[in-house]
Sequence to fold (504 residues):
Amino acid sequence: MTRPDRQRVVVVGGGTSGWMTAAALVKLLPNRCHVHLVESEAIGIIGVGEATLPHIRAFNERLGINEAEFMATTRATFKLGIEFRNWGRIGDSYIHPFGTFGRGTGDVQFHHYYARLLHAGVQLPPIEAFSMACTLARANRFAPPWPDPRQIASTFGYAYQFDAVAFAPYLRRFAEALGAERTEGRIVDTEREGESGNIKAIVLEDGHRIEGDLFVDCSGFASLLIGKTLGEPFQDWSRWLPADRAVAMPCRTATDVTPYTSAIAMPAGWRWRIPLQHRTGNGYVFSSDFVSEEHAADALTAAVEGAPMASPRTLRFKAGRRERSWAHNVVAIGLSGGFLEPLESTSIYLVQQAITALIELFPEQRISPFDRDEFNRIVDMEYDRVRDFLILHYHATQRDDSEFWNYVRTMPIPDSLAEKMELFRRRGRIVKYREGAFLDASWVSVYLGQRVIPAGFDPRATGPSVESLIAGMHQMQAEIGAAVTAMPEHLAYLERYCPMPAAA
Fold:
Protein backbone atom coordinates (compact mmCIF):
# COMPACT_ATOMS: atom_id res chain seq x y z
CA MET A 1 0.00 0.00 0.00
CA THR A 2 1.16 3.55 -0.79
CA ARG A 3 1.21 5.82 2.26
CA PRO A 4 -0.89 8.97 1.72
CA ASP A 5 1.91 11.23 3.01
CA ARG A 6 4.33 10.08 0.31
CA GLN A 7 4.50 11.36 -3.27
CA ARG A 8 3.59 8.77 -5.89
CA VAL A 9 6.52 8.76 -8.34
CA VAL A 10 5.99 6.86 -11.59
CA VAL A 11 9.19 6.17 -13.54
CA VAL A 12 8.39 5.48 -17.19
CA GLY A 13 11.07 3.26 -18.71
CA GLY A 14 13.79 1.09 -17.24
CA GLY A 15 17.31 0.77 -18.56
CA THR A 16 20.19 2.63 -16.97
CA SER A 17 18.43 5.96 -16.45
CA GLY A 18 15.18 4.45 -15.14
CA TRP A 19 16.74 2.12 -12.62
CA MET A 20 19.35 4.67 -11.52
CA THR A 21 16.47 7.04 -10.80
CA ALA A 22 14.39 4.44 -8.99
CA ALA A 23 17.34 3.19 -6.93
CA ALA A 24 18.37 6.69 -5.86
CA LEU A 25 14.84 7.75 -4.88
CA VAL A 26 14.03 4.67 -2.79
CA LYS A 27 17.43 4.76 -1.10
CA LEU A 28 17.76 8.48 -0.41
CA LEU A 29 14.10 9.55 0.00
CA PRO A 30 12.46 6.47 1.54
CA ASN A 31 9.97 8.48 3.58
CA ARG A 32 9.13 11.02 0.89
CA CYS A 33 8.04 8.93 -2.06
CA HIS A 34 6.74 5.62 -3.33
CA VAL A 35 8.48 4.60 -6.56
CA HIS A 36 6.65 2.65 -9.26
CA LEU A 37 8.65 1.85 -12.42
CA VAL A 38 6.92 0.77 -15.61
CA GLU A 39 8.90 -0.87 -18.41
CA SER A 40 8.45 -3.27 -21.29
CA GLU A 41 11.00 -6.00 -21.83
CA ALA A 42 9.89 -6.13 -25.46
CA ILE A 43 11.41 -2.69 -26.03
CA GLY A 44 14.82 -3.54 -24.58
CA ILE A 45 17.65 -1.10 -23.88
CA ILE A 46 20.37 0.40 -26.03
CA GLY A 47 23.15 -1.28 -24.01
CA VAL A 48 26.23 -1.01 -26.22
CA GLY A 49 28.73 -0.92 -23.37
CA GLU A 50 29.19 2.03 -21.09
CA ALA A 51 32.17 4.19 -20.23
CA THR A 52 31.78 6.62 -17.34
CA LEU A 53 33.27 9.59 -15.52
CA PRO A 54 34.58 9.45 -11.93
CA HIS A 55 31.32 10.95 -10.62
CA ILE A 56 29.70 7.48 -10.89
CA ARG A 57 31.77 6.39 -7.89
CA ALA A 58 30.15 9.03 -5.68
CA PHE A 59 26.71 7.92 -6.89
CA ASN A 60 27.40 4.28 -6.07
CA GLU A 61 28.87 5.20 -2.68
CA ARG A 62 25.78 7.25 -1.75
CA LEU A 63 23.64 4.24 -2.50
CA GLY A 64 25.93 1.95 -0.50
CA ILE A 65 26.87 -0.18 -3.50
CA ASN A 66 29.90 -2.40 -2.98
CA GLU A 67 32.45 -1.59 -5.67
CA ALA A 68 33.93 -5.06 -6.14
CA GLU A 69 30.49 -6.70 -6.32
CA PHE A 70 29.23 -4.09 -8.78
CA MET A 71 32.30 -4.47 -11.00
CA ALA A 72 32.17 -8.28 -10.99
CA THR A 73 28.45 -8.29 -11.86
CA THR A 74 28.83 -5.81 -14.72
CA ARG A 75 32.17 -7.29 -15.96
CA ALA A 76 33.69 -3.88 -15.36
CA THR A 77 37.20 -2.59 -15.83
CA PHE A 78 38.83 0.53 -14.43
CA LYS A 79 39.11 3.73 -16.41
CA LEU A 80 41.80 6.38 -15.84
CA GLY A 81 40.89 8.59 -18.78
CA ILE A 82 40.14 8.69 -22.49
CA GLU A 83 42.69 8.29 -25.26
CA PHE A 84 42.16 10.41 -28.38
CA ARG A 85 43.87 9.21 -31.54
CA ASN A 86 44.17 11.13 -34.82
CA TRP A 87 42.16 14.15 -33.65
CA GLY A 88 44.59 17.05 -34.04
CA ARG A 89 46.44 15.40 -36.90
CA ILE A 90 46.59 11.84 -38.17
CA GLY A 91 49.15 10.02 -36.01
CA ASP A 92 48.55 12.16 -32.89
CA SER A 93 47.58 10.55 -29.59
CA TYR A 94 46.86 12.06 -26.20
CA ILE A 95 44.96 11.09 -23.06
CA HIS A 96 42.37 13.18 -21.26
CA PRO A 97 43.17 12.10 -17.68
CA PHE A 98 41.02 11.78 -14.60
CA GLY A 99 43.48 13.72 -12.52
CA THR A 100 45.84 16.65 -12.56
CA PHE A 101 48.91 17.68 -14.50
CA GLY A 102 51.71 18.11 -12.00
CA ARG A 103 50.60 18.01 -8.40
CA GLY A 104 47.50 20.08 -8.92
CA THR A 105 48.41 22.42 -6.08
CA GLY A 106 49.61 25.99 -5.87
CA ASP A 107 48.30 29.31 -7.12
CA VAL A 108 49.77 28.87 -10.61
CA GLN A 109 48.60 25.88 -12.59
CA PHE A 110 51.19 23.46 -13.96
CA HIS A 111 50.39 24.09 -17.63
CA HIS A 112 51.48 27.73 -17.28
CA TYR A 113 54.99 26.61 -16.27
CA TYR A 114 54.89 24.09 -19.11
CA ALA A 115 53.93 26.85 -21.59
CA ARG A 116 56.68 29.11 -20.28
CA LEU A 117 59.31 26.46 -20.99
CA LEU A 118 57.89 25.85 -24.47
CA HIS A 119 58.18 29.57 -25.23
CA ALA A 120 61.75 29.48 -23.90
CA GLY A 121 62.59 26.87 -26.53
CA VAL A 122 62.96 23.96 -24.09
CA GLN A 123 62.28 20.55 -25.64
CA LEU A 124 59.62 18.89 -23.52
CA PRO A 125 57.71 15.62 -23.75
CA PRO A 126 53.92 15.87 -24.15
CA ILE A 127 52.26 17.27 -21.05
CA GLU A 128 50.76 13.86 -20.23
CA ALA A 129 54.24 12.79 -19.11
CA PHE A 130 53.56 14.91 -16.03
CA SER A 131 50.23 13.24 -15.22
CA MET A 132 50.02 10.26 -12.90
CA ALA A 133 46.78 9.13 -14.54
CA CYS A 134 48.15 9.31 -18.10
CA THR A 135 51.41 7.55 -17.25
CA LEU A 136 49.57 4.83 -15.36
CA ALA A 137 47.18 4.35 -18.28
CA ARG A 138 49.97 4.15 -20.87
CA ALA A 139 51.71 1.53 -18.72
CA ASN A 140 48.45 -0.49 -18.53
CA ARG A 141 48.64 -0.58 -14.75
CA PHE A 142 46.19 0.21 -11.99
CA ALA A 143 45.85 0.61 -8.24
CA PRO A 144 43.57 2.97 -6.30
CA PRO A 145 44.85 6.48 -5.57
CA TRP A 146 46.86 6.86 -2.40
CA PRO A 147 45.01 8.63 0.44
CA ASP A 148 48.05 10.76 1.38
CA PRO A 149 47.71 14.05 -0.59
CA ARG A 150 51.46 14.63 -0.31
CA GLN A 151 52.13 11.66 -2.57
CA ILE A 152 52.10 11.92 -6.38
CA ALA A 153 50.05 8.69 -6.44
CA SER A 154 47.15 10.64 -4.91
CA THR A 155 46.76 12.98 -7.91
CA PHE A 156 44.37 10.90 -10.02
CA GLY A 157 40.86 9.51 -9.97
CA TYR A 158 39.12 6.74 -11.83
CA ALA A 159 35.82 5.61 -13.30
CA TYR A 160 34.49 2.36 -14.76
CA GLN A 161 33.91 0.69 -18.11
CA PHE A 162 31.06 -1.78 -17.76
CA ASP A 163 28.36 -3.80 -19.50
CA ALA A 164 25.26 -1.58 -19.62
CA VAL A 165 23.03 -4.61 -20.24
CA ALA A 166 24.06 -5.97 -16.82
CA PHE A 167 23.91 -2.64 -14.97
CA ALA A 168 20.14 -2.07 -15.16
CA PRO A 169 19.20 -5.53 -13.77
CA TYR A 170 21.74 -5.01 -10.96
CA LEU A 171 20.08 -1.73 -10.00
CA ARG A 172 16.64 -3.27 -10.37
CA ARG A 173 17.44 -5.91 -7.76
CA PHE A 174 18.85 -3.19 -5.52
CA ALA A 175 15.81 -0.92 -5.89
CA GLU A 176 13.18 -3.65 -5.52
CA ALA A 177 14.85 -4.85 -2.32
CA LEU A 178 14.28 -1.35 -0.93
CA GLY A 179 10.62 -1.25 -1.89
CA ALA A 180 10.45 -0.01 -5.48
CA GLU A 181 7.50 -1.45 -7.39
CA ARG A 182 7.78 -2.63 -10.99
CA THR A 183 5.11 -3.24 -13.60
CA GLU A 184 5.74 -4.89 -16.95
CA GLY A 185 3.79 -3.36 -19.81
CA ARG A 186 3.73 -1.08 -22.83
CA ILE A 187 2.25 2.39 -22.41
CA VAL A 188 -0.43 3.24 -24.98
CA ASP A 189 -2.04 6.39 -23.55
CA THR A 190 -1.82 9.11 -20.91
CA GLU A 191 -4.51 10.97 -18.98
CA ARG A 192 -4.11 14.68 -18.22
CA GLU A 193 -5.85 17.02 -15.85
CA GLY A 194 -7.83 19.62 -17.74
CA GLU A 195 -6.96 22.71 -15.70
CA SER A 196 -3.29 22.19 -14.84
CA GLY A 197 -2.24 20.10 -17.83
CA ASN A 198 -0.45 17.73 -15.46
CA ILE A 199 -0.37 14.03 -16.23
CA LYS A 200 -2.79 12.15 -14.00
CA ALA A 201 -2.18 8.57 -15.11
CA ILE A 202 -0.60 6.37 -17.73
CA VAL A 203 -2.54 3.60 -19.45
CA LEU A 204 -0.99 0.27 -20.39
CA GLU A 205 -1.77 -1.98 -23.33
CA ASP A 206 -3.78 -4.31 -21.09
CA GLY A 207 -5.93 -1.41 -19.84
CA HIS A 208 -4.18 -1.08 -16.50
CA ARG A 209 -4.05 2.56 -15.21
CA ILE A 210 -1.21 3.80 -13.03
CA GLU A 211 -1.75 7.12 -11.30
CA GLY A 212 1.01 9.35 -9.98
CA ASP A 213 1.86 12.74 -8.53
CA LEU A 214 5.23 13.03 -10.28
CA PHE A 215 6.23 11.26 -13.48
CA VAL A 216 9.86 10.69 -14.49
CA ASP A 217 10.30 10.14 -18.21
CA CYS A 218 13.11 7.64 -18.75
CA SER A 219 11.64 6.30 -22.00
CA GLY A 220 14.76 7.03 -24.05
CA PHE A 221 14.57 8.47 -27.55
CA ALA A 222 10.81 7.69 -27.62
CA SER A 223 10.35 10.53 -25.08
CA LEU A 224 6.81 9.34 -24.36
CA LEU A 225 5.87 11.97 -21.80
CA ILE A 226 8.03 15.08 -22.14
CA GLY A 227 8.07 14.89 -25.94
CA LYS A 228 5.01 13.08 -27.26
CA THR A 229 2.51 13.98 -24.53
CA LEU A 230 3.66 17.44 -23.43
CA GLY A 231 5.27 18.47 -26.72
CA GLU A 232 8.23 20.14 -25.05
CA PRO A 233 10.36 21.70 -27.84
CA PHE A 234 13.77 20.24 -28.70
CA GLN A 235 16.86 22.38 -29.30
CA ASP A 236 18.72 20.92 -32.27
CA TRP A 237 22.53 21.19 -31.95
CA SER A 238 23.41 19.14 -35.03
CA ARG A 239 24.95 22.17 -36.76
CA TRP A 240 27.75 21.97 -34.16
CA LEU A 241 27.66 18.21 -33.48
CA PRO A 242 26.74 16.74 -36.89
CA ALA A 243 27.14 13.05 -35.97
CA ASP A 244 23.65 11.52 -36.10
CA ARG A 245 24.35 7.78 -36.27
CA ALA A 246 26.38 5.11 -34.52
CA VAL A 247 27.00 1.57 -35.61
CA ALA A 248 27.99 -0.70 -32.70
CA MET A 249 29.47 -4.19 -32.48
CA PRO A 250 31.19 -6.13 -29.68
CA CYS A 251 34.21 -8.30 -30.38
CA ARG A 252 36.52 -10.65 -28.57
CA THR A 253 39.43 -8.92 -26.90
CA ALA A 254 42.63 -9.54 -28.85
CA THR A 255 44.88 -6.88 -27.28
CA ASP A 256 45.34 -5.33 -23.83
CA VAL A 257 42.45 -4.76 -21.45
CA THR A 258 43.42 -1.13 -21.10
CA PRO A 259 42.42 1.06 -18.12
CA TYR A 260 41.11 3.70 -20.49
CA THR A 261 38.59 4.18 -23.28
CA SER A 262 39.82 5.01 -26.77
CA ALA A 263 38.23 7.48 -29.20
CA ILE A 264 39.84 7.02 -32.61
CA ALA A 265 39.04 9.63 -35.26
CA MET A 266 37.61 8.27 -38.52
CA PRO A 267 36.95 9.97 -41.91
CA ALA A 268 33.36 10.92 -40.95
CA GLY A 269 33.43 10.81 -37.15
CA TRP A 270 35.17 8.63 -34.58
CA ARG A 271 35.34 5.08 -33.28
CA TRP A 272 35.11 3.98 -29.66
CA ARG A 273 36.91 1.10 -28.00
CA ILE A 274 35.69 0.10 -24.52
CA PRO A 275 37.51 -2.92 -23.02
CA LEU A 276 35.47 -4.97 -20.54
CA GLN A 277 36.47 -8.14 -18.72
CA HIS A 278 34.63 -10.43 -21.15
CA ARG A 279 34.70 -8.51 -24.44
CA THR A 280 35.55 -5.23 -26.13
CA GLY A 281 32.83 -2.78 -27.11
CA ASN A 282 33.25 -0.98 -30.43
CA GLY A 283 31.28 1.64 -32.27
CA TYR A 284 31.61 4.17 -35.07
CA VAL A 285 29.88 7.50 -34.39
CA PHE A 286 29.40 9.26 -37.72
CA SER A 287 27.47 11.82 -39.72
CA SER A 288 25.15 10.40 -42.36
CA ASP A 289 25.78 13.54 -44.41
CA PHE A 290 29.32 12.32 -45.03
CA VAL A 291 29.15 8.51 -45.04
CA SER A 292 26.41 5.90 -45.51
CA GLU A 293 25.35 3.46 -42.80
CA GLU A 294 26.57 0.57 -44.94
CA HIS A 295 30.04 2.02 -45.43
CA ALA A 296 30.26 2.93 -41.73
CA ALA A 297 29.41 -0.65 -40.75
CA ASP A 298 32.05 -1.97 -43.15
CA ALA A 299 34.64 0.44 -41.75
CA LEU A 300 33.89 -0.63 -38.18
CA THR A 301 34.02 -4.33 -39.04
CA ALA A 302 37.40 -3.83 -40.71
CA ALA A 303 38.80 -1.89 -37.76
CA VAL A 304 37.87 -4.01 -34.72
CA GLU A 305 40.66 -5.93 -33.07
CA GLY A 306 39.11 -9.38 -32.61
CA ALA A 307 36.42 -11.73 -33.86
CA PRO A 308 32.97 -10.08 -33.91
CA MET A 309 30.51 -11.40 -31.31
CA ALA A 310 27.41 -9.96 -32.99
CA SER A 311 26.37 -8.23 -36.19
CA PRO A 312 26.71 -4.45 -36.38
CA ARG A 313 23.58 -2.55 -35.35
CA THR A 314 22.79 1.06 -36.08
CA LEU A 315 21.52 3.71 -33.67
CA ARG A 316 20.06 7.00 -34.86
CA PHE A 317 19.99 10.20 -32.83
CA LYS A 318 20.16 13.98 -32.90
CA ALA A 319 22.33 16.13 -30.64
CA GLY A 320 20.43 18.58 -28.46
CA ARG A 321 18.15 18.87 -25.47
CA ARG A 322 14.59 19.75 -24.52
CA GLU A 323 14.01 23.42 -23.78
CA ARG A 324 12.77 22.29 -20.37
CA SER A 325 13.63 19.00 -18.71
CA TRP A 326 10.93 19.52 -16.07
CA ALA A 327 7.56 20.63 -17.41
CA HIS A 328 4.25 20.37 -15.51
CA ASN A 329 4.68 17.26 -13.33
CA VAL A 330 7.02 15.45 -15.71
CA VAL A 331 10.81 15.26 -15.24
CA ALA A 332 12.85 13.98 -18.18
CA ILE A 333 16.01 12.09 -17.26
CA GLY A 334 18.35 10.51 -19.80
CA LEU A 335 17.73 10.31 -23.54
CA SER A 336 14.14 11.52 -23.27
CA GLY A 337 15.46 14.94 -22.24
CA GLY A 338 18.50 15.24 -24.47
CA PHE A 339 21.37 13.51 -26.20
CA LEU A 340 25.06 14.26 -26.50
CA GLU A 341 27.24 11.76 -28.28
CA PRO A 342 29.42 9.52 -26.07
CA LEU A 343 32.72 11.18 -26.98
CA GLU A 344 33.49 12.10 -23.37
CA SER A 345 31.39 9.41 -21.66
CA THR A 346 28.89 11.93 -20.30
CA SER A 347 25.64 9.97 -20.71
CA ILE A 348 25.50 8.51 -17.20
CA TYR A 349 26.98 11.70 -15.75
CA LEU A 350 24.06 13.74 -17.13
CA VAL A 351 21.59 11.17 -15.77
CA GLN A 352 23.29 11.32 -12.40
CA GLN A 353 23.28 15.11 -12.22
CA ALA A 354 19.57 15.24 -13.08
CA ILE A 355 18.81 12.66 -10.38
CA THR A 356 20.84 14.63 -7.83
CA ALA A 357 19.00 17.84 -8.70
CA LEU A 358 15.63 16.07 -8.48
CA ILE A 359 16.43 14.70 -5.04
CA GLU A 360 17.60 18.08 -3.77
CA LEU A 361 14.53 19.83 -5.22
CA PHE A 362 12.03 17.04 -4.62
CA PRO A 363 8.53 18.52 -4.34
CA GLU A 364 6.69 18.90 -1.07
CA GLN A 365 2.89 18.60 -1.30
CA ARG A 366 2.82 20.57 -4.54
CA ILE A 367 5.41 21.27 -7.22
CA SER A 368 6.95 24.72 -6.78
CA PRO A 369 7.62 26.61 -10.04
CA PHE A 370 10.79 27.99 -8.40
CA ASP A 371 12.14 24.48 -7.76
CA ARG A 372 11.19 23.46 -11.28
CA ASP A 373 13.01 26.49 -12.75
CA GLU A 374 16.12 25.76 -10.68
CA PHE A 375 16.13 22.13 -11.84
CA ASN A 376 15.92 23.28 -15.46
CA ARG A 377 18.70 25.82 -14.91
CA ILE A 378 21.00 23.12 -13.53
CA VAL A 379 20.25 20.60 -16.29
CA ASP A 380 20.53 23.22 -19.05
CA MET A 381 23.89 24.38 -17.68
CA GLU A 382 25.25 20.82 -17.58
CA TYR A 383 24.18 20.08 -21.15
CA ASP A 384 25.43 23.41 -22.50
CA ARG A 385 28.87 23.08 -20.90
CA VAL A 386 29.32 19.48 -22.03
CA ARG A 387 28.20 20.55 -25.53
CA ASP A 388 30.95 23.18 -25.71
CA PHE A 389 33.58 20.70 -24.53
CA LEU A 390 32.55 18.17 -27.19
CA ILE A 391 32.56 20.78 -29.95
CA LEU A 392 36.10 21.76 -28.92
CA HIS A 393 37.38 18.29 -29.89
CA TYR A 394 36.05 18.65 -33.41
CA HIS A 395 36.78 22.31 -34.01
CA ALA A 396 40.33 22.33 -32.62
CA THR A 397 41.71 20.15 -35.39
CA GLN A 398 44.21 20.68 -38.16
CA ARG A 399 42.84 17.84 -40.27
CA ASP A 400 41.75 18.65 -43.82
CA ASP A 401 41.74 15.13 -45.29
CA SER A 402 37.96 14.67 -45.56
CA GLU A 403 34.81 16.73 -46.06
CA PHE A 404 33.72 15.97 -42.51
CA TRP A 405 36.89 17.32 -40.89
CA ASN A 406 36.88 20.35 -43.16
CA TYR A 407 33.34 21.10 -42.04
CA VAL A 408 33.93 20.85 -38.27
CA ARG A 409 37.24 22.72 -38.46
CA THR A 410 35.68 25.71 -40.24
CA MET A 411 32.12 25.73 -38.83
CA PRO A 412 30.87 28.65 -36.70
CA ILE A 413 30.86 27.70 -33.01
CA PRO A 414 28.82 28.94 -30.03
CA ASP A 415 29.98 32.27 -28.61
CA SER A 416 30.45 30.62 -25.22
CA LEU A 417 33.09 28.27 -26.68
CA ALA A 418 34.70 30.93 -28.87
CA GLU A 419 35.35 33.03 -25.76
CA LYS A 420 36.88 30.07 -23.92
CA MET A 421 39.19 29.26 -26.82
CA GLU A 422 40.33 32.87 -27.20
CA LEU A 423 41.19 33.10 -23.49
CA PHE A 424 43.34 29.99 -23.75
CA ARG A 425 45.02 31.01 -27.00
CA ARG A 426 45.98 34.39 -25.54
CA ARG A 427 47.01 33.59 -21.98
CA GLY A 428 46.51 29.88 -21.30
CA ARG A 429 43.52 30.68 -19.10
CA ILE A 430 40.80 28.13 -18.40
CA VAL A 431 37.31 29.41 -17.64
CA LYS A 432 36.59 28.25 -14.10
CA TYR A 433 33.24 26.77 -13.14
CA ARG A 434 31.73 26.28 -9.73
CA GLU A 435 29.57 23.57 -11.29
CA GLY A 436 30.09 21.33 -14.30
CA ALA A 437 31.67 18.08 -15.39
CA PHE A 438 35.07 19.09 -16.71
CA LEU A 439 37.73 20.88 -14.70
CA ASP A 440 40.93 22.60 -15.82
CA ALA A 441 43.01 19.50 -16.61
CA SER A 442 40.29 18.24 -18.97
CA TRP A 443 40.39 21.40 -21.08
CA VAL A 444 44.20 21.58 -20.97
CA SER A 445 44.51 18.00 -22.22
CA VAL A 446 42.37 18.69 -25.30
CA TYR A 447 43.87 22.10 -26.09
CA LEU A 448 47.49 20.94 -25.91
CA GLY A 449 46.72 17.45 -27.22
CA GLN A 450 45.25 19.04 -30.36
CA ARG A 451 48.08 21.56 -30.77
CA VAL A 452 46.35 24.67 -29.44
CA ILE A 453 49.39 26.31 -27.83
CA PRO A 454 48.80 29.51 -25.83
CA ALA A 455 50.64 32.63 -26.95
CA GLY A 456 51.14 33.65 -23.32
CA PHE A 457 50.92 32.37 -19.78
CA ASP A 458 50.35 33.49 -16.20
CA PRO A 459 53.03 36.12 -15.44
CA ARG A 460 53.63 34.50 -12.06
CA ALA A 461 55.09 31.52 -13.92
CA THR A 462 58.19 33.64 -14.60
CA GLY A 463 59.10 33.56 -10.90
CA PRO A 464 61.22 30.39 -10.87
CA SER A 465 64.24 30.16 -13.15
CA VAL A 466 64.09 28.06 -16.29
CA GLU A 467 66.77 25.80 -14.83
CA SER A 468 64.81 25.16 -11.64
CA LEU A 469 61.65 24.42 -13.60
CA ILE A 470 63.46 21.90 -15.80
CA ALA A 471 64.96 20.22 -12.73
CA GLY A 472 61.56 20.09 -11.06
CA MET A 473 59.96 18.50 -14.09
CA HIS A 474 62.67 15.86 -14.31
CA GLN A 475 62.13 15.07 -10.65
CA MET A 476 58.37 14.84 -11.13
CA GLN A 477 58.73 12.44 -14.06
CA ALA A 478 61.00 10.24 -11.96
CA GLU A 479 58.56 10.30 -9.05
CA ILE A 480 55.61 9.41 -11.29
CA GLY A 481 57.62 6.64 -12.98
CA ALA A 482 58.55 5.07 -9.66
CA ALA A 483 54.96 5.18 -8.39
CA VAL A 484 53.61 3.63 -11.60
CA THR A 485 56.22 0.85 -11.65
CA ALA A 486 55.17 -0.15 -8.13
CA MET A 487 51.57 -0.73 -9.22
CA PRO A 488 50.23 -4.02 -10.66
CA GLU A 489 49.10 -4.61 -14.22
CA HIS A 490 45.48 -3.68 -14.80
CA LEU A 491 44.26 -7.17 -15.68
CA ALA A 492 46.08 -8.72 -12.72
CA TYR A 493 44.43 -6.25 -10.37
CA LEU A 494 40.98 -7.02 -11.85
CA GLU A 495 41.48 -10.76 -11.50
CA ARG A 496 42.32 -10.34 -7.84
CA TYR A 497 39.80 -7.64 -6.90
CA CYS A 498 36.62 -8.20 -8.94
CA PRO A 499 36.76 -11.28 -11.21
CA MET A 500 33.59 -11.79 -13.21
CA PRO A 501 31.38 -14.78 -12.33
CA ALA A 502 32.62 -18.09 -13.68
CA ALA A 503 29.47 -18.62 -15.75
CA ALA A 504 29.88 -15.29 -17.58
